[in-house]
Predict the 3D structure of the following.
Amino acid sequence: MLSELLQNNDITIVRANQLINREIRIFRSMKEKDGLYVAEASKAVAVGTFKNVTLRPATKNAVAINKNQFFFESLATNLEKRLAPNADMEHVNKFKVLNPDFWPEGEDDMIQYGEQEITDLCTKFRMNFSNAGHTQLLRLQRQWREESTKRPEAAVPLLAHTASQQCRV
């Protein structure tokens, strides 16, 4: 369930954003094509039983959900409204440079990959490095990308922000 995934201690803002967007896509898909449970419920209604329980006709006061399109579109729209505004999404996307899953594959593409984003994130989170410190951070990031085995210690404060940024969910 989305809620449980978002509550994991190791969730990053980038991963949370991916999960929420995936759920939105699922809801939009379900408004076009019924999921497994809708098919199961329809079959139970046709047979008149569900898990050995006899189904009875609805009372006259029962309210039917108007075609799934409206329900699932409403869920998708409400989730979208809870996502960060576009201005904040710019920063969320900048965190991707710290995640090896988003790194380009070619060596030439990796040479300066993410340098501007790291500079912007350091500025955003008031991580004031001297020119020498900033250069060292970029050098460490390049080393990290090449080795991709362990994260450089100098980058830990910035990496901590990927986990500490709160999502509006």
In short: Residues 2-82 form one domain. The two ends are 14 Å apart (CA to CA).
